[in-house]
From TrEMBL:
PROSITE patterns: RHOGAP
GO terms for biological process, alphabetical: signal transduction
PANTHER family found in the cross-reference section: ACTIVE BREAKPOINT CLUSTER REGION-RELATED PROTEIN, BREAKPOINT CLUSTER REGION PROTEIN BCR
Protein name: Rho-GAP domain-containing protein
GO cellular component, one term: membrane
Species per Swiss-Prot/TrEMBL record: Albula glossodonta
UniProt xrefs under Pfam families: RhoGAP
Length: 272
């Protein structure tokens, strides 16, 4: 199935082309143009065609899919799975602090990344598949790792101009994350810092890594995404830049442990 946007004239041309390609065999169906409700699309069409050529039947279909549907993340129906399942559910089932798939991907990437260019950008297919799996896991989470609830707070915190207030706010936000999310985020930060230590070899700076992972770890909820579709592109771009800056802020800070954050929770809470 291919999603596209076509006009009535284009549909007619396509039907004529299909008839020509079928060596005289008739096109079984060419449905009339319809406009789906509430899409705002001025030009929309759907065509289903069957071609018989040399005893081979080819079915061709196109339809329109709204942008809001392409942004929707569908949670896994099987809570026994890994991808598309809440991170807290996975860690509880595995009796671990960080999902096994993340730990395994990080281990394999670092094992293979001693001398080669970093796979997130270049062409070693084996490592690229592992790194892609890591990114896919975070992208498929029903809720972003840094949570929907704290999305706007992270964007507001990283925009603070006062360094002391900014540090206090950003650390408090980390303390506000659920334990599985916080453990996983700190583990990923350590991994990305180790990758950046080999920047002269793999060409991956902290900024590059933040650009790759920031919008995946911190993104608006589905409700906010639907609302942003109608906004101007520069506002959308501003959010993406802020998502990158949030991750970059934590990458550039000295490493901090889970226990250290929890010990300082009262201090951070009192100062926010």
């Amino acid at each position: 199935m291919t999603d596209t946007l076509v006009s009535e004239r284009d549909l007619n041309s396509m039907c004529e082309h299909l008839e020509h390609c079928s060596m005289g065999s008739p096109v079984d169906e060419c449905a009339p143009v319809k406009r789906p409700p509430n899409t705002g699309a001025k030009l929309w069409g759907r065509v289903r065609s069957k071609i018989l050529r040399q005893k081979i039947k080819v079915e061709f279909s196109m339809k329109f899919t709204g942008r809001d549907l392409t942004l929707k993340r569908t949670p896994s129906k099987k809570q026994s799975g890994v991808f598309g399942v809440k991170i807290g559910v996975v860690t509880k089932r595995e009796c671990s602090r960080v999902p096994f798939v993340i730990r395994q991907c990080i281990e394999e990437v670092e094992k293979r990344d001693s001398t080669k260019d970093f796979p997130l950008m270049l062409s070693d297919m084996d490592i690229n598949a592992i790194a892609g799996t890591l990114k896919l896991y975070f992208r498929e989470l029903p809720e972003a790792l840094l949570t929907d609830r704290l999305y706007l707070a992270f964007l507001e915190g990283v925009a603070l101009s006062d360094p002391v207030a900014k540090e206090t706010c950003m650390m408090q936000l980390l303390c506000s994350l659920p334990d599985p999310n916080l453990f996983t985020f700190l583990t990923l930060l350590e991994h990305l810092r180790r990758v950046a230590e080999k920047e002269t070899v793999n060409k991956m700076s902290l900024l590059n890594l933040a650009t790759i992972f920031g919008p995946t770890l911190l993104r608006p909820s589905e409700e906010n995404s639907k609302g942003q579709i109608t906004l101007l592109s520069d506002i959308w771009s501003h959010d993406v830049m802020a998502q990158v800056q949030v991750l970059l802020y934590y990458l550039q800070r000295p490493p901090v442990s889970f226990s250290e954050l929890k010990r300082n929770t009262i201090y951070f809470s009192a100062d926010v």
